[in-house]
Amino acid sequence: MKRSFFLLFLSAVTSLGIAQSKKSNSKPNIIIINMDDMGYGDTEPYGMTGVNTPHFNQVAEEGMRFTNFNAGQAICTASRAAVLTGCYPNRIGMSGVLLPGAKHALNPNEETIASLLKKNGYKTANYGKWHLGNQLPYWPTNYGFDEFFGIPYSHDVWPIDYDGYSKVTDAKDMRSSFPPLPLISNTTIIDTIENIKDASKLTTLFTEKAIGFIKKNKKDPFFLYLTHPLPHAPLAVSDKFKGKSDLGLFGDVIMELDWSIGEIINTLDTEGIAKNTVLIITSDNGPWLVFGDNAGSSGGFREGKSTTWEGGTRVPFLIRWPGKIKSGSVNSSLMTNMDLLPTIAAITGASLPRNQIDGLNFLPVLTGKTASSPRKVFYYYFGVGSNNLEAIRYKHWKLVFPHKGTTYNKKLQGKDGYRGEGASAEFPMALYDLAHDPGEVRDVQQLYPEIVAEIQKIANTAREDLGDDLNQKVGKNVRKPATY
């Protein structure tokens, strides 16, 4: 009798142990594929014509497509800081863009998606473009990533001219002072990207690294952050896609990025982990329209990268989680890339950062438990070397404050990889109803003074919290970046 009881007890303990083991290995894998300068209208789910994107389409058909998803700021460094930390970039001193001469980086004290998931038992990797610190120790392995293979910043930050091969010799051109573009493995520079031919290998190279990581870690929960440097100019495409589209080199690049997504999906299917993997596809900001036919499409929204108009911050966002997120669903909730961190924390059971963040948890929205968005407000800050509150969105309203900013509508854009002339303009205060006027054409502030007053109150709160150089306000709750 005692022996039977002991065997039953042992069997129960063993079963419990197996169950706990299975439970510990059932945490969803997380993949974020973050494109560079891919505009809202650059793929078929968002209106692209002339380029087939079957794998973007597949993710949209098998998951959820957001139509009001915004980057935290309309430029590379700031947007990437928002993704990984869940904060407005200016809260953590990471507005604008880091060039080789920069003397600051993301503070390692800031907790990232990678560091939070690593503490929660995840394997973590970043393949592609980093752009949150230009030198050691400010590379991804110091921010929670077990592995990094990629470039420290955009692939146009090199001393090469627009033809992709010639050295820039004009001393007045800042590119002439840029160092060679390094290729980094973890903390070691292993090669340099010398010309556009070298750059054409990057999409395939980073895709292959990502596939290897998935296969190696398929039995453990993992976080893969695949940050493709393209379709940021200069455009570069491998021979297998060169000349394949009806939209020239830009279309070829989009086709190769679509192929990359297909390779990731196929690997998840082959390894039998697709159902336990959250796949996210987005972009860091809108298209760099100054490059004309070598830039993407803002999908009809006003302006593009480096502006606080919708074409600058409104970007694609596709998310697939089989069995959890309704296939083929479309969501018009206002969401931002800052919201990824708390949402992923909720999905995985990871802890939230100790410091204040600005992201909100969208898991109930994704799983259909609520149709009510947790986000009603978004601050449009911008400034390279400044901290300007240029607009605020409240529900479907957007109040633009008087400011000077970039415009792509005054000068001719570039062609065939050559940059057009930049321009700026003075923009007056205006109120736009994005539900009826997504192109931000008709100022309706005289019709809705009560909405203007309401958003002005929100603006005062933002200025107290995060500051505003346009009104000489210093934020009370901002944190400093790392400096060197």
From TrEMBL:
Designated name of the protein: Arylsulfatase
UniProtKB keywords: Hydrolase, Signal
Signal peptide: 1-19
One example GO MF annotation: arylsulfatase activity
Family the UniProt entry places it in: Belongs to the sulfatase family.
Xref: InterPro entries: Alkaline_phosphatase_core_sf (IPR017850), Sulfatase (IPR050738), Sulfatase_N (IPR000917)
Species annotation: Flavobacterium nitrogenifigens
Stretches that traverse the bilayer: none
Domain of life per record: Bacteria
